[in-house]
Amino acid sequence: MVNATPRLSFLALTLVGFLESNRFINVGATAIHPQIPSVASFIDADGPGFVLSASTQVIVDSKFQDSGAPSLLNYAQTFREDLVALTGFNSVPEVKTGSIGDSGAIFMTLGATNHTYFSGVATDEGYDFEISAQSYIIKGSGAIGAWWGTRSLLQQVVMNSVASHGSIAIPAGSGSDTPGWEVRGFMLDAARHWFELPFLADLCIYASFFKLQSFHLHASDNIWDQNFISGPDWRDLYSAFRFQPSAGSPITGLVQLPNETYSRVDFANLQATCAAHGVTIVPEVDNPGHSLAFSKWRPELALPGAPDSLNLSYPDTIPTIKAVWDEILPWFTSAEVSIGADEYDASLANDYISFVNEMADYIAGQSGKSIRVWGTYEPSDTMSISRNVTIQHWDFPGDSIPVQLMEQGYRVINSEQAFLYLDGKTSDAGQFPVELDQSLMWGGAPGGGGWAPNIFTQDDPSNNTNPQNPLLRGSIMALWNDWGNNATTPLEIYYQLARSLAVFSEKTWAGSGVRDTALTQDQFDSIYETLNAAAPSQNLNRAVPPQRNNIIFEYPTITEPQATAFDSVGPPYTLTFTIKPSNASQISVPLLDGASMLVPFDGGVIFAGNDSKLHVSSLSFEDPSTQLWYPLPYTLPPDVYTTVEIHATRNYTYALIEGEVYWWMTNLDIWGEYMKLANMSFAAPSHFIGAEGFNGELRNISLVLGS
């Protein structure tokens, strides 16, 4: 599930800002290295610390090896893989079971007690740890708690990584740690933007490094454009349902984009990868609003004049939705699912409430799972949503009022948009930031104390609750893709999420103003880049090993297709080449019977990689995941040598050609009200040169880190 670009271990790479970030958090007379999220308590000890080396043994307490799902042994095996990826110690022995008898071992066991969330509810997510010259002991209150303990160990490896003869020393001491809330996660809108499963798996692995435990996958929806919705062409508006039904299923027609769906087997593999890293996928199928995919399949189910909403009073609507859940419920390993249920016609409140309650009962009866809904206000004097349903609040004060909901006995998850919403690439009139607003995260509570899951508004403390409220389950931040596939590449989505997930992890683990050991913004900023670069077992940064003079490759000339050792290289970079494309309008393509045929020729692909391709035609970048092309306002002259310099950062990509600058852009439809140009950022297509039908000459080729 990781990008195959050659990558040395983090410890063999330059430690970005390590000397600046190697500060300490003081806890009374003790001191520990800061990490994300912060550890609740630590007391240092006299004497030498634990020395980690290529011969360090990972041992699982045989009394508890099968405890948990995944089991303690499963977590230990994944931890060992991460340890190897982080340190480069490829000879670390395979995990074994036994007792603490061996010296020089990392020992994972269970039995930690008195671990509770801020609400006082006991949790399996806590852990204690003890570090000595003889061992590094992690004792979880459950298997998942021991797993989070391994994240702390890895981060301490990073922050103590001053290599000496192939070993790393971690200072002696003991500590204890527990998250403040049960739900700590992120939502990704995968309905209005297609994402391939390896990218989603890598997001899980990255989020796990910062102890986030929930991945809310928004898997059905449609682009909003009132001109389409209310007009005759509503079927042309982009919509998607991402789960691929089984062959012959009665709901097969729900899928209009079969190449943009997840099969049951592939989705099971994704869930297994995420679960192995402590992350649960919570899937969402959004009804009765946001339901254009359903109306395209069964137009009779739609509300008259509003094809993006379902008519809940139509006799076959709810049975159809139940049939969809019958198909996909067996796929999901999570204890709960989301049915969406937001932004529906308020005049149909009773129909809406009846639907939510009926689906809650039905899904519980079929699978034992509970449900979540988005916190939509239902103006009914006669009915109310069941208290068995969790309300995921998102809009204060326009829809639900969380304090009132909790007073009425509802369990609430905080996804308040004023703090926690992002939109792919841009938003309407700057409503949402590109990444979570750091000033709000660190100083956005009344009085400036910083955001936490118990904070729903900056302005009125009476509309916030206390961290100990047992009905406050936690928080989920959200990244929407309102503008569709062409707004971003998957890696641009990661760029928006990377820092946001890390700061969000701190605030949902430690809160604001609850623990003295919680990070300050300065402490977070001093270590984030180091920990981001170190996050193991994925390579969303598309980082490469250090190169002499930052040169990834150089080729004086290319006479035939050339493969390199680099699948993809993340920005910033400069890609330079001189090209003379062929003047041919047609080329001869061989057929299986030995004959050939002439086909139209667009010049072929100059460079190709896992995350992008660069075509001769209009020097177009292609996103292979969505197969969308992004052309330059420029055409290469045939049979003439032209030198092109491509400069890329995470915010933009441009070409310098004969002294002129040309930008790769995309044009976004904002709610059907106006168009907006936005820059595109592409990873370097670095794996193949002059492949995929390229016909022409290439010389003076170089790829250099830095823009």
UniProtKB/TrEMBL annotation:
Which InterPro entries does the record cross-reference, listed alphabetically? Answer: Beta_hexosaminidase_sua/sub (IPR025705), GH (IPR017853), GH20_Enzymes (IPR052764), Glyco_hydro_20_cat (IPR015883), Hex-like_dom2 (IPR029018), HEX_bac_N (IPR015882)
Pinpoint the Glycoside hydrolase family 20 catalytic domain residues.
Answer: 183-490
| Catalytic activities | Hydrolysis of terminal non-reducing N-acetyl-D-hexosamine residues in N-acetyl-beta-D-hexosaminides
Q: Which GO terms describe its molecular function?
A: beta-N-acetylhexosaminidase activity
The Enzyme Commission number assigned here is 3.2.1.52
Q: Which SUPFAM superfamilies match?
A: (Trans)glycosidases, beta-N-acetylhexosaminidase-like domain
For this UniProt entry, which residues form the secretion signal? 1-21
Q: Which GO terms describe its biological process?
A: carbohydrate metabolic process
* Domain Beta-hexosaminidase bacterial type N-terminal residues, every copy: 36-157
- Return the broad EC class: hydrolase
Alphabetical keyword list = Glycosidase, Hydrolase, Signal
Record-annotated active site: 343 (proton donor)
**Record family assignment:** Belongs to the glycosyl hydrolase 20 family.
Q: Mind telling me what this protein is named?
A: beta-N-acetylhexosaminidase
Source organism of the structure: Mycena maculata
